[in-house]
Structure formats: structure tokens, C-alpha cells
Specification:
Number of strands: 6
Shape: globular
Radius of gyration: 15 Å
Strand order of the largest sheet: 1-2-3-4
Helix content: 25-40%
Structural class: alpha/beta
Largest sheet: 4 strands, parallel
Distance between the termini: 28 Å
Amino acid sequence: MMIELDNEQIKNRDYVYEQIKHAMIEWKQYFQGEQEIPFAIHIRGISYCSYAVLKEVAKILFSLYEKYFPRNPVLVVICENDIAKALGQLLVLQSNNKVDIISIDQVVVEQGDYIDIGKTINQSMVPVVIKTLAFMKN
């Protein structure tokens, strides 16, 4: 699931809410019933935002995740820019330990990519492998 927000859009709470909600509703169609499928939320386009704005994004993101994916035990967030640590910490606070939070940055992915996240190294790093599937048309 991809959410793209620029530095101005991120300041508009209603816009952020609608973008995240739209992405989650769209992604929800790939789930059957109460099925739990691991997936990542990719946030891109934000190069800078204040802590207060990031806190609001975390609040919106977790509340909608909990609403649309209540049975998923892990929330994976991938950020292109250097905001994952702060966002991850804010999501942990929002989740109140209801789900595990994995938040990584400096990774570029596209819709449909497969992401393999390895075991934690030194309590703060994880190896990441991005796989893009290519299909041949007959």
C-alpha cells in the first residue's frame, strides 16, 4: 500500500486522513474475510515535517490500521526519507503494544514489491531485501 504526501499536504490533517483512509479501503479489497496477510504501508514524498505533524500522522495511521485491519498483528511502515525512527516510536505509543511495529526508512519500493525483513541486528537494524516480480505475457 502506498501513500504519497508532500511537505505541504502533510500539514493538512483532513487531507492526510482521507489519503490514508482511501489507501486502506483500496488495499482491504485484497483480503478475504478475516484473513491476515502481511503487507507494508509505504509512505513517500515527505522530506521534512515537525514532530507535532508526525505525531498526528501516527495517530491517524494507527487508528485507521486498527479499524480496517484489526486482526493483523504487525504494522510495517516503510519511509523513503529519514522519519522512520520517530514515526515508529510514535506508532508504538499509539498502539499501546496491541501490535508489533516495524518502521524502516531509506528504502525505495513500488506497489506490488515483496519485502523480506530479516531478524534484528544490534536491536536497531534489520536486513531488507526488495523483490519485484516480473510476469511474461503469453
